[in-house]
Amino acid sequence: MVLDNLGSSLRGSLDKLQGKSRLDEDDVEEIVKEIQRSLLSADVEVSLVMELSSSIEDRATGEEPPAGTSARDHVLRIVYEELVDLVGDSTDLPLESQTILLAGLQGSGKTTSAAKMAWWFSTKGLRPAVIQTDTFRPGAYDQAEQMCERAEVSFYGDPDCDDPVKIAREGLEATADADIHIVDTAGRHALEADLIDEIEAIDSTVNPDRSLLVLDAAIGQGAKQQAREFNDAIGIDGVVVTKLDGTAKGGGALTAVNETNSSIAFLGTGETVQDVERFEPNGFISRLLGMGDLKQLSERVERAMAETQEADDDWDPEDIMEGSFTLKDMQKQMEAMDRMGPLDQVMDMIPGLGGGIKDQLPDDAMDVTQTRMREFDVIMDSMTEAELEDPRSIGASRVRRIARGSGTDEETVRELLQQHKMMERTIKQFQGMGEGDMQRMMKKMQQQGGGGMGGLGGGGLGPFG
Ligand SMILES: Nc1nc2c(ncn2[C@@H]2O[C@H](COP(=O)(O)OP(=O)(O)O)[C@@H](O)[C@H]2O)c(=O)[nH]1
Ligand SMILES: [Mg+2]
């Protein structure tokens, strides 16, 4: 079954919570460990990871999942909320005249980001100018000039001058008719005293409205000290994370944001001047944890649940675990899934299922499943209330009648009944089980190929989802 291929152990622990509506301490501990692992491998700084995971742990044990929400979604939402809380919204950048100073180590992507940001402001109808004050790196002037040409924005630099403060001052005068002044600075290989002195001097000369720290997404545990030193020197209002088109997840940005009490302004996603995005928490966090679109998933699940409950007040998904599993229950499950949208889109949103898994399925697998679900729905509409409540009463002659009434064929009706039986059997095995049995059962199902749920398009969407 598809779950076998998911790989990520975080996803594995989350999937174990699939059938549960309550979490025990072991579950929470396991999942918190996996979250720690994910964050650390995304380069989030150790003490921050510990802080984050302890608040996730507290909330996961302390808060009851809202009615109709599975333990898995409950935990996902907590993790998501805690991370959103930490990174916050993107740095406020009013579309008005301002001076922005860029700081960061050599090679972090300052010059590229200066041109990118200038291009971005120009698309908002403003007139940006980039001022290059790097007198340290050979070729810095040419590089900045060329990038600004490509971005079609004004540029100022002075290849014959070796005083960055003078260049900054004259640059502001020379580009006085621009609305946005982006001041690019030199970097060093490491934090050296003269670099800090230099940027402090530029800072007091240009008196920026905002100072942004440019960080390579691949920066690891060094982000903390760098952020602190630049923050002490010039005050950091926001972070630009570059090279997110690579494999690095950019966890260092979280550290920097936490250290400077700021936020993320821009994301760099390539080498050309257009490869820039304003920061948006959802995409960044989903990527950080290596999961699908968390926000959309949790919103959609919530909505689907609410609507299902509204549509039929008598039907409570939790009842399935107690009474018998009827065709009516199966129909409700399918309706809830249907409300979440086209199956392939839903799969894209499910953490870990996106891309990889879909690529392994035949092209039309999604359509086939969706078509089949629709057929089943039509068939169930042709059944009487009594038949829906007691599928065992459906003999050969009733199968014939239902097939005719629904405009399908007997084989499809029998497939539906078969599918129901498999789901019922699976659920029976869950009923009356202790927690430990439940976990063993889940494991077994994952190994064996998912009980009866595989036929409805993957365990992530199984009847307990
Ligand atoms: N792939 C990729 N490369 C980038 C990005 N931003 C910068 N670079 C590259 O990183 C290198 C250093 O960038 P540069 O702007 O010169 O850094 P600076 O020394 O801080 O000014 C250059 O080769 C850039 O092309 C990005 O978002 N994606
Ligand atoms: Mg540079």
Automatic annotation (TrEMBL):
Residues 2-87 form the Signal recognition particle SRP54 helical bundle domain. GO terms for molecular function: 7S RNA binding; GTP binding; GTPase activity. It is found in: Cytoplasm. It catalyses: GTP + H2O = GDP + phosphate + H(+). GO terms for cellular component: signal recognition particle. It is an enzyme of class 3 (hydrolase). Its EC number is 3.6.5.4. Pfam families: SRP54 (PF00448), SRP54_N (PF02881), SRP_SPB (PF02978). InterPro entries: AAA+_ATPase, P-loop_NTPase, Signal_recog_part_SRP54_M_sf, Signal_recog_particl_SRP54_hlx, Signal_recog_particle_SRP54_M, SRP/SRP_N, SRP54, SRP54_GTPase_dom. Gene3D superfamilies: P-loop containing nucleotide triphosphate hydrolases (3.40.50.300), Signal recognition particle SRP54, nucleotide-binding domain (1.20.120.140), Signal recognition particle, SRP54 subunit, M-domain (1.10.260.30). Coiled coil: none annotated. Part of the signal recognition particle protein translocation system, which is composed of SRP and FtsY. Archaeal SRP consists of a 7S RNA molecule of 300 nucleotides and two protein subunits: SRP54 and SRP19. Composed of three domains: the N-terminal N domain, which is responsible for interactions with the ribosome, the central G domain, which binds GTP, and the C-terminal M domain, which binds the RNA and the signal sequence of the RNC. This is Signal recognition particle 54 kDa protein. It comes from Haloquadratum walsbyi J07HQW1. The lineage of its organism: Archaea, Methanobacteriati, Methanobacteriota, Stenosarchaea group, Halobacteria. The gene is srp54.
